[in-house]
Amino acid sequence: MNLDFSIIPRVMPALLTGAKLTLELALLSVSIGLVIGSLAGIARVSNGIIIKGIAAVYVDFIRGTPLLVQLFLVYFGLPSLIGRPVPPFAAAITAMSINSGAYIAEIVRAGIQSIDRGQTEAARSLGLTAGQSMRYVIFPQAVRRIIPPLGNEFIAMLKDSSLVSVIALEELLRKGQVVITRTFRPFEVYTIVAIIYLVMTLAISRLVSWSERKLRVVD
């Protein structure tokens, strides 16, 4: 087998375009997922039985089913309910955000529960309501503890974004597949794709490690 990595200059622009879309998908999904997950995570530790139950069902269902199935539900299943097709980008963001939100909810829940209970009691003794105690005392402290795990969630979503290639959204993996149809060099192209993924994940991992050192909480 003759390897030919001289194709790199020709294929790199297309692959970098796909990498850009991959980063956009991961960033948007985790950002929206952070909002969903924060609300669900707070609901998970609330005293309201109904809202706590709804949050638990959401988290268990999403974490218990594959992202690929969730993507198919949004892209192929949802149009039959709303009577119109869902654009691939919108379907990808929707499915990935909902998926990310469930995992972030558990990160937020764990972060909140890691705060000493005395903090809540102190806030309540100052006359703050349960909601005010969470908003002004507990959650701001929990944020410092959940940032490093959020970085890991971003890395996971970055890699899982490759699944959207099944709905013809041209992120990095899909771009690689398109390039292969033109160059007939699958080994070389997939190797380059893997290296680009590696560079992105290593860069984010280093950023997460740096943030952990900066935000480390001394108990």
Describe the structure in your own words:
- It is flat, with a radius of gyration of 21 Å.
- Helices cover 80% and strands 0% of the residues.
- The protein is mainly α and 219 residues long.
- Helix 2 (49-63) crosses helix 4 (88-113).
- It has a single domain (5-215), classed as MetI-like (MetI-like fold, Orthogonal Bundle).
- The chain has helices at residues 8-44, 49-63, 67-82, 88-113, 117-125, 130-160, 172-183, 186-215.
Task: Set down the secondary structure blueprint.
Blueprint: H1 8-44, H2 49-63, H3 67-82, H4 88-113, H5 117-125, H6 130-160, H7 172-183, H8 186-215
What's the total count of β strands? 0
Q: Which CATH architecture?
A: Orthogonal Bundle
- What about the largest sheet? none
What is the structural class?
Answer: mainly alpha
Q: How much helical structure, as a percent, in the residues? A: over 70%
Number of helices: 8
Taking Cα atoms only, what radius of gyration do you get, to the nearest Å?
21 Å
Number of domains: 1
Task: Supply the CATH superfamily name.
Answer: MetI-like
* CATH fold node name: MetI-like fold
Write down the secondary-structure element order: HHHHHHHH
Shape: flat
β content, as a range? under 5%
| Spans where pLDDT lies below 50 across 5 or more residues | none
On the 0 to 100 scale, the average pLDDT is 90
Q: Give the distance, in angstroms, between the N- and C-terminal Cα atoms.
A: 58 Å
Describe the structure using short key phrases.
flat, 219 residues, single chain, 8 helices, mainly alpha, MetI-like fold
